[in-house]
């Protein structure tokens, strides 16, 4: 048999995730470009400076306003500073991640390099994932660089390690979905300008839409609950609670706030039982879990659609 | 010889406009194929279909035996494509640019430095390797683009107006590069508006108009078919009468016209209308010299190709 004479079986080498990343020419090119000169350093410094300044202002604002006879509670000060940092990081991430990806595909079109890339052997998947990974890794770097600042809130007390961990999960999930939205619009729009506008509209609705909606919704909920002379049926009540929970779980700010409520009221990082008015209990997961799942799902769908768009040949 | 590019009944419509309408064409392996035609004839569209960037409305095309529709990856591996624009990344050096595209063609990292260096030397850009791509002149960018198309050692080069916008020197440099590449065994399929380039380097020519191929074949055959008479310019130092008699005796000479004669001196310029192949043309020169006629200039009309082009494309309208 001639086949058995072959010394090495012809096995396809399995590349590890790390290998696949470092072999992705797009990742190398993008990171090289991003790290060139002192641009990355300036962005990082500005990011940390902004957050520090904000934290310090928040601390002094809190201690000045809440002075009682016993002095401000350092525990609550810690929570306020921590919460403030997470809040501003959520805003930064929601608007910076799309800035890095909204030009990913449309920028290649504008530089007329898109068609060059599409005639090489580079798969559409590598192009899209390479762009996304290199943009997001820089934003995640920004997030991790800010952890020591959050640990300062640690020193003031009142902040538990799991809060830091959960906040990081929420932030990374938000980064991912913001980046994915950016790359999606960048693939469907001809121009980066158009892609950026759409991406920022999405970010605004994503971050601020629900809080605005809640200003309307919460009184409506209250009216609804209190206007019932008898309690609503348990099914309806559970549906309302879950419906509200779902609304929370598609918004990063609400997720952060309600996760914190769970932590403070129940010391539960993952979930709790909610007692309905008829005495039976329903399980309620902590919002960061459905939020993270939602972000993962949305990012995955957007990335897959983007890959299909890039793969598609020009037809018109 | 086997065709390395084969286009069959290719049709491409943009809405109501038919850019390519039933184009069929074969390019033999090793050819330098000049693809000419007026603006909007459908050259770029055809090339974009060949490079798998665009799907045809109907018809098929094969490159190196692979279908551009069914095996786009194999086609991409077989071709190097240079579009009619130059894509630049700002803040990238010449070296990084080549290396990036090498990586996109899945050339192993270990082999890339040597390949990049060879390519830069081939296109005479080795001394600019650390300059930013943006800072290169147009001619240099064009040469870099050519180097990029060669990164993965493709069999076929598809070049869309490689010489457009270049000064005469840069144009001739590109032309020489193409000849060099053909000598290296590559098939070159290029579009151009510069007919002198076609006349100079192409082995085959295809003329398109309104999405249809109106003439195709060896340059010589086409000239003979479309222009039964070639125009030869002859300048003599003397002996005009003998020259006219000698030329009249040659079979195939239709007309001899004296276009310029310097009074007093014997110097004269003639235009000879002649039907015959290249060998016969050179035989005429040998014949004149053998008759003791002092020929100082003997050349074929450089505008021949333009006339071929005009006649071929005019045929469509009527
Ligand atoms: N993306 C497009 N959408 C609509 N029409 C197009 C598109 N691209 C080309 N066309 C039309 O198709 C026809 C053929 O264009 P093409 O670019 O193939 O011509 P060409 O032979 O390359 O011309 P040129 O010599 O000017 O480069 C033209 O009428 C052009 O207007
Ligand atoms: Mg064109």
Descriptive labels:
heterodimer; A: 316 residues; mainly alpha; two-stranded antiparallel sheet; 14 helices; 2 strands; 3% strand; globular; B: 318 residues; alpha/beta; Rossmann fold; Alpha-Beta Plaits; 2 domains; 6-stranded mixed β-sheet; 4-stranded antiparallel β-sheet; 11 helices; 14 strands; 36% helix; binds adenosine-5'-triphosphate; binds magnesium ion
The shape of chain B, in one word, is globular
Radius of gyration of chain B: 23 Å
Count of individual beta strands of chain A: 2
Overall mean pLDDT of chain B: 87
Tell me the number of helical segments of chain A per DSSP (H or I, 4 or more residues long). Answer: 14
Distinct small-molecule ligands in the complex: adenosine-5'-triphosphate, magnesium ion
Biggest pleated sheet of chain B: 6 strands, mixed
* Secondary-structure class of chain A: mainly alpha
Strand content of chain A: under 5%
Can you give the helix content of chain B as a percent range?
25-40%
N-to-C span of chain B: 36 Å
Explained architecture:
The complex is a heterodimer of chains A (316) and B (318). By secondary structure, chain A is mostly helical. Chain A has one domain. Chain A has 14 helices and two strands. Chain A has helices at residues 2-5, 17-22, 25-35, 39-65, 74-101, 106-110, 114-119, 124-145, 147-156, 161-188, 192-227, 234-248, 252-266, 288-311, and strands spanning 271-275, 281-285. In chain A, strands 1-2 form a two-stranded antiparallel sheet. Chain A is globular, with a radius of gyration of 24 Å. In chain A, 34% of the residues are buried. Mean pLDDT of chain A is 81; it is low at 1-11. Chain B is an alpha/beta fold and 318 residues long. Chain B folds into two domains: 5-225, P-loop containing nucleotide triphosphate hydrolases (Rossmann fold); 229-302, Alpha-Beta Plaits (2-Layer Sandwich), CATH 3.30.70.260. Chain B is built from eleven helices and 14 strands. In chain B, the strands form three sheets. Chain B has a six-stranded mixed β-sheet with strand order 6-7-8-3-9-10, sandwiched between helices. Chain B has a four-stranded antiparallel β-sheet with strand order 2-1-4-5, with helices on one face. In chain B, strands 12-13-11-14 form a four-stranded antiparallel β-sheet, with helices on one face. In chain B, helix 7 (195-201) crosses helix 11. The two termini of chain B are 36 Å apart. Residues 14, 17, 19, 37, 39-45 of chain B line the site of adenosine-5'-triphosphate (ATP).
């Amino acid at each position: 048999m001639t086949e058995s004479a072959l010394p090495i079986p012809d096995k396809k080498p399995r590349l590890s995730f790390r290998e696949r990343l470092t072999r992705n020419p797009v990742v190398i090119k993008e990171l090289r470009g991003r790290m060139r000169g002192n641009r990355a350093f300036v962005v990082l410094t500005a990011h940390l400076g902004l957050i520090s300044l904000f934290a310090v202002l928040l601390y002094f604002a809190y201690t000045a306003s809440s002075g009682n006879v016993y002095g401000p509670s350092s525990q609550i000060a810690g929570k306020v500073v921590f919460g403030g940092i997470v809040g501003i990081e959520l805003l930064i991430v929601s608007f910076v991640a799309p800035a890095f990806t909204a030009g990913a595909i449309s920028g290649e079109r504008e530089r007329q390099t898109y068609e060059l890339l599409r005639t090489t052997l580079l798969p559409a998947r590598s192009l899209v994932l390479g762009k996304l990974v290199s943009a997001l890794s820089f934003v995640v770097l920004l997030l991790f660089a800010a952890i020591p600042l959050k640990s300062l809130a640690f020193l003031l007390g009142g902040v538990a390690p799991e809060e830091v961990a959960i906040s990081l999960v929420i932030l990374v999930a938000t980064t991912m979905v913001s980046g994915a939205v950016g790359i999606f619009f960048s693939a469907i729009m001809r121009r980066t300008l158009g892609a950026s506008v759409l991406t920022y509209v999405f970010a605004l609705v994503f971050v601020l839409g629900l809080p605005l909606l809640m200003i309307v919704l919460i009184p409506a909920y209250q009216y609804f609950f209190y206007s019932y002379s008898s309690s609503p049926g348990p099914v309806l009540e559970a549906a309302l609670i879950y419906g509200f929970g779902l609304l929370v779980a598609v918004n990063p700010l609400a997720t952060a706030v309600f996760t914190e409520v769970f932590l403070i009221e129940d010391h539960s990082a993952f979930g709790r039982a909610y007692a309905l008015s008829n005495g039976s209990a329903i399980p309620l997961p902590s919002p960061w879990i459905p939020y993270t799942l939602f972000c993962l799902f949305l990012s995955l769908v957007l990335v897959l659609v983007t890959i299909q768009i890039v793969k598609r040949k020009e037809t018109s | 010889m086997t065709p390395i590019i084969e286009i069959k009944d290719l049709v491409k419509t943009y809405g109501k406009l038919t850019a390519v309408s039933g184009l069929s064409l074969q390019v033999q392996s090793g050819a330098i194929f000049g693809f000419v035609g007026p603006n909007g004839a459908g050259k770029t569209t055809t090339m974009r279909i060949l490079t798998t960037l665009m799907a045809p409305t109907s018809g098929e095309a094969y490159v190196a035996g692979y279908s551009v529709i069914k095996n786009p990856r194999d086609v991409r591996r077989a071709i190097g494509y240079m579009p009619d624009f130059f894509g630049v990344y700002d803040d990238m050096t010449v070296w990084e640019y080549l290396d990036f595209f090498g990586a996109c063609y899945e050339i192993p990292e270990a082999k890339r430095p040597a390949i990049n260096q060879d390519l830069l030397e081939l296109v005479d850009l080795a001394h600019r390797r650390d300059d930013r791509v943006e800072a290169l002149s147009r001619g240099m960018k064009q040469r870099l683009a050519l180097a990029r198309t060669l990164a993965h050692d493709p069999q076929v080069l598809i070049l869309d107006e490689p010489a457009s916008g270049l000064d005469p020197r840069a144009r001739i440099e590109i032309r020489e590069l193409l000849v060099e590449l053909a000598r290296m065994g590559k098939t070159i399929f290029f579009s151009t508006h510069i007919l002198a380039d076609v006349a100079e380097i192409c082995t085959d020519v295809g003329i398109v108009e309104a999405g249809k191929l109106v003439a195709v074949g060896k340059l010589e055959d086409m000239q003979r078919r479309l222009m039964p008479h070639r125009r030869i310019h002859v300048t003599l130092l003397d002996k005009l009468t003998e020259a006219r008699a000698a030329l009249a005796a040659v079979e195939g000479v239709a007309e001899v016209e004296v276009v310029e004669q310097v009074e007093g001196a014997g110097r004269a310029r003639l235009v000879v209308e002649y039907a015959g192949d290249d060998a016969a043309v050179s035989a005429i020169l040998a014949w004149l010299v053998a008759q003791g006629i002092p020929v100082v200039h003997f050349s074929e009309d450089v505008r021949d190709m333009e006339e071929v082009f005009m006649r071929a494309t005019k045929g469509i309208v009527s």
